[in-house]
Structure formats: structure tokens, C-alpha cells
Fold this sequence. Notes:
Elements: H1 2-19, H2 23-30, H3 34-42, H4 49-59, H5 63-68
Helix pairs in contact: 1-3, 2-3
Amino acid sequence: MAGELEDIGTRLREERDRVGISQRELARRVGLSASMISQIESGQSKPSVSTLYGIVTELGVSLDDIFGANGVASPAGDA
């Protein structure tokens, strides 16, 4: 699971870079600390669903884009 979170963090960093904003700016926009954004991107912290949703919404991508880009299976796929 830790590897999957690191992959998600990597995808979030890639999308943030694509949009062209800093960790500090993204943090300000979603109401988090820049440190928390850094920890999420590095896989050191697991974001809540609401936090993750806020980040992807601000970046203009979907949760499917983040999870699907890495081949991470969604819980619905296990049914």
C-alpha cells in the first residue's frame, strides 16, 4: 500500500507541475500546509478522501486519472 501511495503522490506532483503551481500555492488554495502537500507527494502521509478530492479538483483532474494512471485497482474493481 505504501508504494501505491507514493505512486499517487508522484502523479499528484506531476499534475501540479503540469498546472504550474508551487506546493505552497496549492496548499493555500486547498487549505492545507505546504508541508502536508509535500508529505502527500512523497508518500509519507495518506490524505483523506476529502483532501485528495480537493487537491485533484484544484488541479483539474479526476480521482480516476490519479488512480488509473498507475494501474492502482479501485475497491469497486474487487467486487
